[in-house]
Amino acid sequence: MLTYDLSRREGAPLYDYLYRCIRGDILAGRLSPGERLPSKRALARHLEVAVVTVENAYAQLCAEGYLTAREKSGYYVNLIETRTSPPPRPAPRPAPPEPGRTWLLDLKAAGGAPLPFSVWARLTRQALSEQGTDLLRPVPHNGVPELRRAISDYLYRFRGISAAPEQIVVGAGTEYLYNLIVQLLGRELTYALEDPGYLTAGRIYALNGAGCASVPVGPLGPDLEAVEGSGAQVLHLSPSHQFPTGAVTPIARRQALLSWAERGAGRYIIEDDYDSEFRFTGRPIPPMQSIDHLGRVLYVNTFSRTLSPSMRISYLVLPLSLVERYRERLGFYSCTVPALEQLTLARFLSGGYFEQHLNRARLYYRERRDQVIAALEDSPLAARARISGENAGLHFLLTLDTDRTDGELKALAEARDIRLSLLSDYCARPRPEWDRTLVIPYPALDPGRMPAALAALVEIL
Amino acid sequence: MLTYDLSRREGAPLYDYLYRCIRGDILAGRLSPGERLPSKRALARHLEVAVVTVENAYAQLCAEGYLTAREKSGYYVNLIETRTSPPPRPAPRPAPPEPGRTWLLDLKAAGGAPLPFSVWARLTRQALSEQGTDLLRPVPHNGVPELRRAISDYLYRFRGISAAPEQIVVGAGTEYLYNLIVQLLGRELTYALEDPGYLTAGRIYALNGAGCASVPVGPLGPDLEAVEGSGAQVLHLSPSHQFPTGAVTPIARRQALLSWAERGAGRYIIEDDYDSEFRFTGRPIPPMQSIDHLGRVLYVNTFSRTLSPSMRISYLVLPLSLVERYRERLGFYSCTVPALEQLTLARFLSGGYFEQHLNRARLYYRERRDQVIAALEDSPLAARARISGENAGLHFLLTLDTDRTDGELKALAEARDIRLSLLSDYCARPRPEWDRTLVIPYPALDPGRMPAALAALVEIL
């Protein structure tokens, strides 16, 4: 008869402990396939427990397939393939956090103008109280209507884009949206990316199995001949402030690129308008989407950059020609952004807070940029470096006058506690004119620590 | 000389209006390529505006590439490809919402036990006040540590899963996680899915360009020979409550499926444990992950189902063998769930509220299920229908005794304002044994309206 020490069950319910004991015996082979277990009554008497306890344990073993109950006959052990079972793995210990190195100057650091958190928190609380349990209802696949309407208004007023809320798809970050775009347009196509450029986009297209090509960019944007020669059907661009060169594609090149798209069936342009909110001279550059009359531009932008990286809210503006295809192919996907964040952002936009935040952020960035540039100009580095791309976006370039290679610069800087970000880091194919050029993410830098860092930097040239 | 009626600018800044006028003339060809514009002073005098106004307008036109400034010479119109520009599209009107049909009985409806919203709202407010601006910091790619620790604890205590927080990846919904899984394991592999089964998973694998196969499931789960014969490397299963048959894969079949995975290099099982929280007899069935000693099971579950569909929080438990590969290939992706939701959920889990909610929800579902089953048993349909799969999950099956085809049943029901959900809707390949079987999502049904609906239903058999 099965005998178990039920006093060792350490607070577990009796039936549960008994179930575990019998299961252990079956898995260990101590109870053989085909063996008949004692009747419920007999085992209950033997173990001095209630019949219902054994009944529950047997029922669970039947539910999981360890036993079979045969009517009027009893409970039999099933044949279970014995697998070599190494001892249960201990759960791995958390890896110790990488010791954070403290840099004198870190050009890979991220930073931005602080979001007015108290306003955001207040709007979140309002949305919680006013929407209440409505927040628990399913969200339309392309985002809550209030947010899509607010984005549509914002785009019309500030970016010259005329897009109906139906053209807008809200998603948890641009990375996620790039995945959807490949599923929309197709992975059998070739996606051309700017070189140098935003490497993550290329990585995502490649991870999706799409073909990738690279197109060199110059001061006037992507090279037209290279676009034609790339064999690509889809062109990923950041025309209003190219990352990382800062180039603004002029209107003639934009028109030519649109003509390229219109000349081939199924050609599209993905316009990444990131950082377009931050232009420090004149008005913002109108996006290509606003001069695209044949529906070849998919416009992408994000609030993660303007609000906070911990809030993954981005959006895609589909050309009218793709709205129906999107709904049919991808409309089954649930929207990835929670209702609460969407409704809070809708309030933030339509209440005018986003505009206020952008105005403040522009002042903050302009001041920070001027401080960093002033520190540069006051330093001995000024004579051996040239600034470019400083009129827009959240970084500028600094080309150094030196004979050192980029690899040497990096190693020498690191020995002086300086982490460099080099234009060549963003190149698919190295080109001499992109060498010896630093990418300066000025919002993340502390102007007070610049003089020491710049002095160290000039020593290594 | 350029002449514009500046009084028509309707509140726009002067320079901005002037910029738009000149831009319009260039695009319309009224100003020709190579043409020299009047000097800033001359135009300012002519239009009776300040020189700085013209200066700003010219600067913007230069920034966008409409003009080139030549030193000591003046401003010249650039050559811009004229494209056929149809009149600006009007933004499409929102499509009128589809008239919602009111059904007497809707088996496609969704519904669930209400989340204790006041508790959730309170924890959200707490997280907002206590975490403050920490909420704005970037989130680790696999989720905030507090949430991964809370999930790890929950899995250990309630699902018998021993997984370190490092094995857990938090993402915005299981659909998103399936996309990541294909990018992790590879789209050159074949993914086998249960038939009948959760069709969305197959749709996502196919959209990702992966090969798909289907494996028939019976009362004991997926057919082993079919698994072997499918040529698949990856098997997508819901072993603890198969959707939609409700079958529980017994331990012997689970062991055999694990052995299948262990026999081939690169074979994996994706265990979809959805609905496992809801089992109404005995204890929950332990997941395959808990008996997988060689690291072949990727475990997936979601909080969207247990909390609210508007909250997209799901998680993936990687086997130890894939943690490093995941980090290398996909660790660059930003986490798709906002910090606020993650920290609120961490509090909800570690404060014991989730457990309380599940206990209440189980009672709610059991009661609702019993009411729906009672209504069935009291109706004339009882004599012509058989219930199965009612011990677990949030639906059960009702097999009808009728000669009608599924298509006839659907059409006849619809004429009586009843929308059916049929087991054959979830089949890749039709099989007679799955015909004439309704999928009953009982949490979404109103027991009060059942008698009338069931009387109508029996008429059409």
Provide structural commentary.
2 copies of one chain form a homodimer. Chain A is α/β, with parallel strands linked by helices. The first copy, chain A, has 3 domains: 6-77, Winged helix-like DNA-binding domain superfamily/Winged helix DNA-binding domain (Arc Repressor Mutant, subunit A, Orthogonal Bundle); 105-111 and 357-460, Aspartate Aminotransferase, domain 1, CATH 3.90.1150; 117-127 and 137-351, Type I PLP-dependent aspartate aminotransferase-like (Major domain) (Aspartate Aminotransferase, domain 2). Chain A has 14 helices and 15 strands. In chain A, the strands form 4 sheets. In chain A, strands 4-11-10-9-8-5-6-7 form an 8-stranded mixed sheet. A 3-stranded antiparallel sheet of chain A has the order 12-13-15, with no helix packed on it. In chain A, strands 1-2 form a two-stranded antiparallel ribbon. In chain A, a hairpin with a 7-residue loop joins β12 and β13. In chain A, α6 (174-185) packs across α7 (199-207). At the A-B interface, α3, α4, α6, α7 and α9 of A face α3, α4, α6, α7 and α9 of B.
How would you summarize the topology of this molecule?
Two copies of one chain form a homodimer.
Chain A: H1 14-27, H2 40-47, H3 51-63, E1 67-70, E2 74-77, E3 105-106, H4 117-131, H5 145-159, E4 168-171, H6 174-185, E5 190-195, H7 199-207, E6 211-218, E7 221-222, H8 224-229, E8 234-237, H9 251-263, E9 268-272, E10 297-302, E11 314-317, H10 320-330, H11 339-350, H12 353-378, E12 385-388, E13 396-400, H13 406-415, E14 418-419, E15 437-440, H14 450-460
Helix pairs in contact in A: 1-3, 2-3, 4-11, 5-11, 6-7
